[in-house]
Write a structure and sequence with these properties.
Layout: E1 3-11, E2 17-25, E3 31-36, H1 39-51, H2 63-88
Antiparallel strand pairs: 1-2, 2-3
Length: 90
């Protein structure tokens, strides 16, 4: 989607003044204009819009390997805490 950020005075729905307007047309053809207090926040909205379609299926992970590493870290943590408790109880 093409996005346009223009420096223009605007009002947010909360009543707060803004200086940047983000304009775009969504995939369904609906026009949107959003007021932001900074250019950075307008870019943040663009990132959020683009991320909306992302699902866990899109993220390629080797789940079995990641889970094994996570289990190993948790085991080590638990063993360290048990060892610390045993030392303190002696």
């Amino acid at each position: 989607m093409p996005y346009k950020i223009r420096k223009r005075k605007c009002k947010q729905s909360t009543g707060k003044s803004g200086s940047y307007v983000l304009s775009y047309v969504d995939k369904k053809g609906k026009k949107h204009s959003n007021c932001h207090t900074s250019r950075k926040k307008a870019h943040g909205q663009i990132a959020a819009i683009e991320a909306e379609g992302t699902t866990f299926d899109d993220i390629k992970l080797n789940e079995s390997n990641d889970l094994s590493k996570l289990r190993e870290i948790i085991r080590e943590f638990i063993l360290e805490k048990i060892a610390a408790l045993n030392i303190n109880n002696m």
